[in-house]
Structures are given as C-alpha cells and as structure tokens.
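User: Sequence in, structure out. Go.
Assistant: Echoing your sequence, followed by the structure tokens.
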Amino acid sequence: MRLRFLTFAALLVIATAASAKEVWLSIGGTTAGGTFRTDARIFNPSTTKDIQIQAYYLPVGNTDNSGVQPLAPITVLKRQQVVYNDVVSSLFHSSGLGAIRLKSDDDFVATQRIYAVSSSGTLGQFVAGVDASSAKAKGVIIQLQAGGTFRTNVGAANPNSSVANVTFHLYDKNNAVVGTAKTIVMQPYGVIAPGGLAGYADAVPGNADLTDAWLSYSSDQPIVAYGSVIDNGTTDPTYIPAAEDTGVAVVGPTGNIFNVTTRSSSIAISPAITQGLLQPGTKVTFRFSGHDTTHGFRLVDSDGAIIVDVTVPPDAAVFERTVTLGPEGTYQYYCTITTCSTGHLSMQGTFPVGTPGYDPGPKY
C-alpha cells in the first residue's frame, strides 16, 4: 500500500495558495528609426484585492537573460487597468526590442499592441500575452507571406531557465520543404528578434515561392513563437501565434537525459517516456527547471520506493539528478508541495519501465 498511500496523500490535500501566473509579451519596443512602437496594458480582474506584478525586460539577441532583474513590483488596483504607452520606454526606461516577462502571485491579464508610427495613425496588430504554461514544444505557424508587397518576420522567446534546442522546417506554397532544417539553440530566457523566413532554414533557394508559406518547429523545451506578416504597401501587420503541431516529434536530449519542467498545474517531462524506451537498471538523468513558484518532484518506482525526491525553486539554475531505475512496471511522479498552487492536484503523471502493461499491484 505504500505507493498508493504516498500518491493519494499528495493528491488529496487541497492547495490553499493562490495560483502564481507568468505571462510573456513576445516582443515589444521601438524599431530602429521609430517605425513601429508597442503599447501594453495590464488588467487586474480581482474584485477584492490589489495585486503586484514583477516585470522583466529581456532584450533580443538570443543571449542568456537569466541575470535580468525585475523592476520594483507594479501595483495594479482591483478591477483596474494600467496603461503603458511605448512600454519599453515608459516602463523600463530603455530602448530597442525585447520580450516582456510578467509574474504575479495573483491572476492578471496582459496584452500589447504593435503599430506603425504615422501621421494618420494605424490600428496595428494585437498581441495577447502568452501564459508560460501555454508555451509549445511542437508548433506550426501558418498563413505566412513573403513576396510582392508582403514580408514575414518570425521571432521566438524561451521562457525557460535552461537552453532550448529548436529545429525549424520551412515549407513553400506547394507544401514542399524549402532548403534544409535549421536548429537554433535558444539561451535561457533568450529572445530571437523578428527575422525573415529565409533565416529559419539553411540553403534556401533564391526562387523559393513563399507567397503562402508555413513554418514548423520541434523543441526540447516549450517556447513562445510567432509570425508577423507586414504589408509593405500599407504597413498593415498581422500577428500569427504558433499553434500546436501534433505531427512532429519533440526534440530529445541525447542519451537518457530528460528535461523536467515544473509549473503550476503541470509537470512536463521531455522527451516523452514511451513504452520500451527505458529498461530496469538503466541510468537516467533528470534535468530540472522551475517556474512561477516552488514545486516538488517525487518519482516512485513500481515497488513504492522513492527514486527521486527534490525541491524545484522558481528561476533557479538548472540542476540534475542521475539515478538507476529499479524494477519494471509503472513509475509515478507528483508534486510534493501541496500548497504550491490551486493546480497542485494536476501535477502528477506516470511512465512505463520495462514490460508493456506490467503492474505489480498493491504492496501490503
């Protein structure tokens, strides 16, 4: 009974802490020459309390932004919206382009608008904030255009404290692969500036027809990716967020190394551990990265023995644990910090080791 007791003890305690939230505004700032500008809004939906939000400005350049410190907390009064026009300048007193990372112990909504600076004014493109838990390890960006009066820029942000190895495939109007796949190593909290489609494949032929193109990617860490289609004639832009691409496999680390990412409501292991991948007695390394608040990770083998038991702080440096797997069967993992968030009960899962469908049953 020890295995089931441990599991149910972890799952049946009702979490009492508020669910922490982390939202990414994928790109913002003012382009060189001031052609485009970004305004942001943050809304507090609470009817009972004011909230505080930590804001980080992460410059483009795909550099390691782990050391970036937040501003003094922003206070948003209950049922109010705060306005930051030309947000990188007005909020961060900076310039250039970058992603904006927002964190709070409470719920909030954040959005931005990127628009062309002109005497007649433009509506621009609306960009919804992306919850860090909605970042995607497998993504597709469709309805991209390059040629004629149109151009497309693609950018990405890595909301993880570890590197993300991302492989892109570019497809033309006829759904044919363009050039060869390109792998980009995104640094921790790294931000890739918006760039042309040809930068997301190698050996792109000059006559490639990208008038109706699409881009697919696979990563060993979930990322935030998007396309921005610009009509050069009118400067009208369209923002296209990445959608889930269920037809590609997650890029996995070499050897038996698995990335474990903890966030409120989820524990993600990548690549996925499928039947037959691991055998009893195999050495396995788990690489941990934490987000939003402190979580626990406990892995229990099919006999109820604890294999891994660690605390994963938010934003800590990535750390590893190497273990030797025990008997075959179904291994269970779950968060051990019952007050981590309101999503605590969802932070659990299983994976198989050895024989398909093996279940040793309860241990009395």
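User: And one key feature?
Assistant: The chain has a mean pLDDT of 87.
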